[in-house]
Amino acid sequence: MGTVKEVGQKSTRWLEMMISMLSLASIGGAGAYLAIRRLENGLGDFGLGLIWISISVFAAFYVQMIAHEFGHYLFGKLSGYQLVSFTIGSLMFIKTNDHKIKLKRYAIPGAAGQCLMNPPDTEDPPYKLYNFGGIILNFGLGMLCLVLYWQLPVVALLSEFLLFNFVVGISLAIMNGVPLRINGIANDGYNILAMKKSAATRRVFWIVLRINYSLQSGMRYRDMPAEWFELPNDLDLENHLASAMIYTRGAYFRDQHQFEHAKQEYQTLLVQKGALEFYKLEARCELLFYELVGECRAEEVERLYTKALKKHIARTEKFFIERQRLLFAYQLLFKKNSAAAKVHLELFEKMSAVYPYFAAIQLERELLQLVNHQWEMRK
Question: Sheet holding 113-118: strands in order across?
């Protein structure tokens, strides 16, 4: 018989599955209804109608995704937060130190959009409206589209777009509002519940946002206050924010070239119960790099460079500049293929022109020099 915690986890997985299935069923049902209605009203060719319906689904999803992130921005602003970056897909709009908006390229696997803000100068910040904002706008826009759908006459494409906006909006509001970890990633409802229960979680939430703001402003990890990187004693280490803090502690030590301390943090992540898979894979990337610039043992490199890691690297190498540093080291120090290594060095330079974190570029250049130094030493 399972523990109460195991039963709770199984119930959560079932709830996650049911919500996902109901959302897909709602979209499918709306599509079928619109197809029948299109036929009854003689709105053109049926095949063309299906194409329009498909386009409407995607258009509604992107509109609602933008609305969700704008909701975080709007209600965050009302709570005293300041905009740092607004990301849709791989397009990141950042607010510079001189209050200009610049376009950069950056994306996190599994995140269709993201609005990051700088919290007010209190380590117990208001968090409910900022986190609830996306849910509120998804629900509100969805209901508005439903009203317009019933009030306006049947118009090809517009009717489909309005109905799907309603279905997608309500689905996103539910999927983000019911506290869940979908594919290991905590949704807004889960974040709110976790912060409501724990002052330590609220402090870590503040620290994570403040670190991101500082990085965006050009400050390196090593120049930030040391107390930001201390884990609160009463923090639940199975909380997803603990994963972010442990990984960030590793980055703090990495920026000071204290690689043994960084390795300890990353090794902790690999065995940490409840740690997000994304952070585990990122930690494995860093451990692989340290092995390459260290002993470079073939058996250890092959142990770390798993099929799952290769897949993660392939998903992130277009947007994470540190991935080019890792691949450069792998090709140069392990494969001893200077031509292939040069390709990744060129990609690094190309990415640095549009990368949003200037401070990270400085650190990565130092690590590239370390790789070159190791290469020269081993010749």
Answer: 101-105, 91-95, 82-88, 113-118
pLDDT digits (tens, 9 = 90+) for 126-150: 999 999 999 999 999 999 999 998 8
**Spatial separation of the C-alpha atoms in residues 143 and 137, rounded to whole Å:** 10
CA neighbor of 215 nearest in space, from 358, 113, 338, 323? 358
Q: Are 173 and 139 in contact (CB under 8 A)?
A: yes
Both structure tokens of 149: 């759908």
* Domain ranges within the chain, ordered by starting residue: 4-64+120-193, 200-378
What span, in angstroms and rounded, lies between the C-alpha atoms of 7 and 158?
A: 45
Could you list the beta-strand ranges (E) of 178-301. Answer: 181-182, 185-186
User: Taking the chain, what is the end-to-end CA distance rounded to the nearest angstrom?
Assistant: 59
Radius of gyration of the chain (CA): 23
For the record, the structure tokens of 188 come out as: 């807004």
Q: Which string of DSSP letters, residue by residue, matches 18-50?
A: HHHHHHHHHHHHHHHHHHHHHHHTT-S-HHHHH
C-alpha dihedral sign at 27, 28, 29, 32: positive
Q: Measured between alpha carbons, how far is 196 from 182 in angstroms, rounded to an integer? A: 20
Angle at 66 between CA 204 and CA 354, to 5 degrees: 75
For residue 331, what is the DSSP state?
A: I
Token pair of 180 as six digits: 């869940």
Going by C-alpha positions, the residue among 377, 376, 371, 183 that lies closest to residue 288 is 371
β-strands 185-186, 101-105: how paired? unpaired
The two structure tokens encoding residue 186: 């905590």
Q: Is 182 exposed, middle or buried (0-12, 13-18, 19+ CB in 10 A)?
A: middle
Q: Residues of the chain whose pLDDT is less than 50?
A: 1-9
The Cα 33–Cα 56 span in angstroms is 14
| pLDDT, tens only, 156-165 | 678 778 888 8
The three-class DSSP label of residue 180 is coil
Q: What pTM does this model have?
A: 0.85
